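User:
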Amino acid sequence: VEVEKIVEVEVAPPPATAEWTFNHCSQIDKFHDQMFVHWAEGTSAASGGRFDVDIQGASVLGYKCGEALGVISDGLVQSGEIIGGWTTSEIPMLNLETMPFMTTSYAEGNLLATLIADMGHYDRLKEEGVKPLFNYCFTGQHYWTKMPIQSVSDIAGVKIRVYNQITSDMIQAVGASPVTIDMADLYTALQRGVVDGSVTSALTARDSNFYEVLSHGNAVYFAAPCTSTVSVNIDAWESLAGDLQASALVAADSSRRYARIRAEDEEISLFKELEEQGMTIVAPPPSVILELREKT
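Assistant: Predicted structure:
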């Protein structure tokens, strides 16, 4: 009599997978969105397609730029951008990047970001339940108006959009009227005359179609902000399999380099793009830059 021998075969569990949502407030298919997509695609490739990050931009999820830290901290999304200049109340040190004329080149901006990291200020994100994966830069910050600034008195009383307390104090110091407006609402505010200008980057000017509502970009270059981060919810991060974490970190290292090269290359091409769309880009006289420095 033949007796069948039953052999137990241990079946390995299927490889871990993850599906995340990434929130940001920049325009879709523009520089920052492309950078975030670069990280998401790199993460997917490094994980063999097992870690999918769905990029949701232009505040389509309903969250404003200034709400980004809380949105990630509260676990409303697993990942997203945190713009350094929008963390005034939670992490004041990250707002140093927008201090007038503290950084006027990408080298200085990245050095400040490194110093802030070395001093432990990114650890404050961890206290909020958020883990930064890498920092990135915006292009330089300038004044965007309906006229060239040939004298500081040219903007006296002009309503200028600002995005944190530091830029508000700066605009007030030069005699203009600061109005805080989220990036998602900026174009409409300019279109309706709620404000007559803005301090922001050439990236935002291009991506928000400033050339349709403003006439001049004044290349003041009062800041080179580089403390913004791609960050993740710590609980979501710790729930990931180790190899998926490694995939995200490999992609983060690649995207950090990609973002730095792109930001440095973008500045000149952005000005050219805006000029081709009808804007006039002017360099205010040295006397104006000096007066702006002294007043702010």
